[in-house]
Each structure stands twice: as C-alpha cells, then as structure tokens.
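Project outcomes to date are best conveyed with an example. Our students and postdoctoral researchers have been running inverse folding experiments weekly, and each run begins with a structure described purely in tokens. The record below, which covers 201 residues, was selected by the lab manager from last quarter's runs and is presented without edits.
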C-alpha cells in the first residue's frame, strides 16, 4: 500500500521554461531554439543545478561563445522570467494527498542560488516534510544516490512510495529502486495513474 508521494517540482508543480524569457530576444522561434540547443543546453543548466555558481557557469560559457555573451548573461538576470506560475491542478492534487494522510516530500534538480526565489513565491512548498535540492545536497536525478538520499531522510520504504516526475529517465531510475512511479504528462493523467495504484485522490 502506498503511504507517501515524492514529487518532482519543475513542470510538475511549477512551470519552468527558459523560453518564457528568451521568446522576445530573437527574431523567430527557430533562432531561439538553436540558441537553447547549442549555446545554453540543458546539460549546461544541469551544472548550475549541481551547485556550480551562476557567475562561473556564465563566464565559462561566454568564453566559449563570446558572440552570445549578452544572451548568456541573461540566464541569470532573466532567470525569474523563466519561472512560470504554479500548475494549479497539480497543487490541488498535492493538497488532496496530504489532507488524506499521505506523506509528501520533493526531490528536485534545482540551483541553490535560485531555489529561495521559488520558496518565497510558492507557499505550497512549505507543505513538504522535506525537499532534497540537487544544488544544496550535491546529488541529482537520475542518479540513484538522489533517490536514496530522499528515502534515507524521510525514512520511507520504496515499496510504499510513489515518485512523480515529467522526466522518463528519472521515473525509470526510481522504479529500478523499487518505488512506484508515475511519468507526469498532465495533472488529470497523473491523478488517474495514482488512482490505478490505489492512491486515494
């Protein structure tokens, strides 16, 4: 029987997309997508999620692509614009779980520098009994160590825990450790999959 739910945050409970900032910085979508693929890829952002300071990461990237120095610098100055609103139906789902007695925590790949912005902006983050943050704790999904840390800190049993994430590799990693898992596509789909697992939502 499932007793606890471990949530990803970005694009499960909180919208995050660099396009929210960069959409008006290019002449067309193709140019923006090229920049986000080749100049500011997700692998580079992951370095900051793992604890590299923004200033250092930006300086290193600017040295590689000096012609894009201004746009690269906006990864820091424009970061708050990349943070969208809460996904309200997902927040409602989280609220249903906790009010029905399920334990809830979060496991997120997020920079230690920017996570305080989210904490101040989204009160529901205070509902979690614990939040494991890659930039603070030094472990990131889909590494098994990230999930092991979450289980150790919460004291949860994998077989009684469901993990919810929009990344398939992360979901697969959780499943390999014996956790139930839901590959998040929408709040409605997530709710139905949780019900199929016997979760009362």
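After processing, the design step wrote out the following sequence:
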């Amino acid at each position: 029987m499932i007793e606890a739910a471990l949530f990803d945050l970005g694009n499960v409970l909180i919208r995050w997309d660099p396009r929210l900032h960069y959409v008006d910085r290019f002449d067309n979508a193709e140019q923006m997508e090229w920049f986000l693929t080749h100049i500011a890829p997700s692998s580079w952002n992951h370095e900051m999620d793992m604890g590299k300071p923004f200033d250092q990461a930006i300086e290193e990237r600017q040295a590689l692509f000096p012609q894009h120095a201004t746009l690269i610098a906006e990864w820091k100055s424009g970061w708050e614009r990349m943070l969208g609103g809460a996904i309200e139906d997902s927040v409602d789902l989280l609220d249903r779980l906790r009010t029905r007695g399920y334990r809830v925590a979060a496991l997120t790949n997020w920079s230690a520098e920017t996570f305080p912005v989210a904490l101040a902006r989204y009160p529901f983050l205070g509902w979690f009994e614990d939040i494991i943050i890659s930039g603070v704790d030094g472990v990131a999904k889909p590494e098994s160590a990230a999930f092991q840390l979450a289980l150790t800190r919460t004291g949860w049993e994998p077989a009684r825990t469901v993990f919810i994430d929009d990344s398939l590799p992360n979901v697969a990693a959780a499943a390999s450790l014996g956790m139930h898992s839901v590959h998040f596509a929408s709040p409605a789909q997530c709710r139905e999959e949780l019900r199929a697992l016997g979760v009362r939502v």
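Residues 35 and 140 are 25 Å apart (CA to CA). Residues 17-83 form one domain. The training component of this project remains on track.
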